[in-house]
Amino acid sequence: KVNEIRMANGLSAVQYSASLETTSVVRANEITTKFSHTRPDGTDWYTVNANLQYGENLAEGYNTADDVVNAWMASPTHRANILKPDFNTCAISTTTQNGRTYWAQEFGI
């Protein structure tokens, strides 16, 4: 879905990154306890791996990929991440706690 949007806007597709998936799993789990771009330990979101992470989109409560991507595209800051030409890698992870789904999308260059 993200790549369809990027390509429709004249951008190259982002490629899956296993390394970014590791960071997105960490962030998805962290936001179940503190929904913020600040990590539960008080550090910035990108400190999971500052050598890889250059953009982040978070969401909670959406049940489908279409719903969460549509919500991100309706938000100027999240949309800017999805459409940033410099980003060429991406990973998205989800986790569910107490019936609520949390999403972490991490971008790299």
Number of helices: 4
The percentage of residues in β strands lies in 15-25%
Largest sheet: 4 strands, mixed
* Main β-sheet, spatial strand arrangement: 1-3-4-2
Name the poorly predicted regions.
none
Secondary-structure element pattern, one letter each:
HEHEHHEE
Number of strands: 4
Task: Using the alpha-carbon principal axes, give the shape.
Answer: globular
Radius of gyration: 13 Å
Our measurement of the CA-to-CA distance between the termini, rounded to an integer number of angstroms, reads 19 Å
Give an overview of the whole structure.
- The protein is α+β, with helices and mostly antiparallel strands and 109 residues long.
- It has four helices and four strands; from the N terminus they run αβαβααββ.
- It has helices spanning 2-8, 18-30, 65-74, 76-82; strands at residues 15-16, 55-60, 89-97, 100-108.
- It is globular.
- The model has no long low-confidence stretch (mean pLDDT 97).
Blueprint of the fold:
Elements: H1 2-8, E1 15-16, H2 18-30, E2 55-60, H3 65-74, H4 76-82, E3 89-97, E4 100-108
Parallel strand pairs: 1-3
Antiparallel strand pairs: 2-4, 3-4
Keywords:
109 residues, four-stranded mixed sheet, 4 helices, 24% strand
What does this entry show, briefly?
The chain is 34% helix and 24% strand.
